[in-house]
Automatic annotation (TrEMBL):
Protein name: Phosphate acyltransferase
GO cellular component term, pick one: cytoplasm
Lineage: Bacteria, Pseudomonadati, Pseudomonadota, Betaproteobacteria, Burkholderiales
Family membership noted in the UniProt record: Belongs to the PlsX family.
Pfam families per the UniProt record, alphabetical: FA_synthesis
Complex formation: Homodimer. Probably interacts with PlsY.
Annotated pathway: Lipid metabolism; phospholipid metabolism
The UniProt record lists the keyword Repressor: no
Amino acid sequence: MITLAVDCMGGDHGPSVTLAACRRFLEQHSDARLLLVGTADGLKGLEHERATHVLATEVVAMDDPVEVALRRKKDSSMRVAIQQVKDGAAQAAVSAGNTGALMAIARYLLKTLDGIDRPAIATQMPNAKGGATTVLDLGANVDCTAEHLLQFAVMGSALVSALQEGGEPSVGLLNIGEEVIKGSEVIKKAGELLRTAGKSGDLNFYGNVEGNDIFKGVVDIVVCDGFVGNVALKASEGVASMIVGGLKQEFKRNIFTKIAAIVAYPVLSALMRRMDHRRYNGAALLGLRGLVFKSHGSADALAFEQALSRAYDAARNNLLDRVRTRVAHAAPLLAPAETPPVPGMAAATH
């Protein structure tokens, strides 16, 4: 049985969404158990033979400062859920709560793996090939050194190799051009480190990629700092929503567009499904001594269920052991970064 600890109080909607998603998840996964973490009143909506209530007395609000979540709310549903992973009661934790607080609490309780300075947030973005491109970091680390970017590439490779079939995943370094002479000094140095890792067999390094290559599916993994990654994520979601919303409005204009919509429905339905960001919900916090997954704060039941499924797949495919193995193999290249190991938490939550 795969056991997940779920912060049922986190996110914009709390139990009204998380409990509905948990019920649907349990119906689809007969080999899964859930530890539902929340207040006594918040957990009243779900009773199931494979669901256990774990009580917490506090809730981390979406606008709580990291200091408040980490130091003052020591019995929050978020913290109790992650504690289940630390104690070995669950193989992974899932929360839709405050991103900065989640990263801080997870790092405090679980600690980072040897050879990793900073955890990174990794998720998938749909691409033109019908699959998805994994991008990291997405907001945990605003300022990164070249060594950090190499660590992200190693962890991202472990994630993708664990969750998808096929050969060694390809890695691209996000830059303003494909040429090795382009980019900041940090990016140039990161390119050198990634090329060295490619030659040593630690990575399948493709080279520099540009922003549009994320959506073309040129590589399996794109590495960047958290500031750039978070902007790319929010921009992609905005564009997808605009296109889908625009199509729906356009086909309501008159009888002719309605007829066209009926004729083109199968194609339009497939397109909208592919662009639906809810299907890609669930970001992994990589580099910790335990599995933690972040859902969008605004997730509905479908999206939160996807986050649960990603955590389930990661646990079932031994993601943590794969990351450890990758990091250990690449240890000679993962020199400690020169900057102080204080994470630059993204102010925005999602």
